[in-house]
Specification:
single chain; alpha/beta; Glutaredoxin; 6-stranded mixed beta sheet; 4 helices
Length: 148
Amino acid sequence: MPTPAVDLRELGWHEAAGPLSFDGLRGRVFVVVELNLGSSLCLRHSLPQARAMRRAFPESSVGVLGLVSAGLEGIPEEEHRRLGRCAGIDFPFAVLPGPAPTSDPGCVMLFGPCGRIAASYAGPVSDSELGRAIGRLLAEPALPPTAC
């Protein structure tokens, strides 16, 4: 049975100026990276890639969000920020509720300015492929958030 979509407003966000929502992200491209901090693949590939995206694009054009699925359900909320910083997460992130997946390659979801999924990748995606996809979205004519 499919897992229901997570409402971003219900998550406790760290490294963010305030609560986040899909509506609040409209008008710019954004990337959601699922991170399993217990996965060496995520720590070697997905996390550095997300940090590089954050540095490569202005935040006003491309937002990067992390959803941590590391099974931190027994750890107090105030420790999540410290653990994220220790792991090197320097972009807004939230911890997903529930246990950590046993075998999870992580995923990347790319959203266009109107908040629709433009691409999704299960497992690692190359920097060049992800960069091209972001570039295509940035090259599209700009729409005001109210037009979406």
